[in-house]
Amino acid sequence: MTDKEILKKAFESFMPQTPEGIEDFISLWTAHSVKRKEIITSAGEVEKYLYFVTEGVQRVVYQDDQNRESTLVFSYPPSFGGSISSFFLQQPSRYFYESLTPSRFLRASFESIDACMQRHYGVSEAIRLGITQAFAGLLERMVELQCFTSEEKFRQLLKRSPHILTLVPHKYLANYLGIDPTNFSKLINSVRI
Q: What is the pLDDT of residue 193?
């Protein structure tokens, strides 16, 4: 299956598209690649592209003025990525979008996606549903961060994404869960999966 066929399948999973709408949408995307530990989008920049990950792992990270980091989300195939709020609002990003491994994408510009959404109701609705699902996931994650113990957060992560331990370096997973890296290592060794 080609990258564009994978993108088509992923996008149509939100809702079926007309042949014209999906053809127009798929035509917007071009190949792009980055090296390991490359900043794809910097905080303060307006996100120009929506990315569809075809290879590699990336993270969206917040960094304060004291260089403390908070990993907010990971992206890996087949998923959409980037500083999504900056992309759709066309406002400067508060976050960095960084590759953790060498990565390949398909990407499409804001202008092209916005125009396609205006031409095709189904494309617009699929994007709305995708954003709504992402928001629902964010609310679930906030509950986990605020209410769950370290072990409960760890178990929930493995329930949601059992493969993540092999994809993402553990120090980033610990940061994502808000767990000290030493305690994260203890959880890996003690929690039955």
A: 61
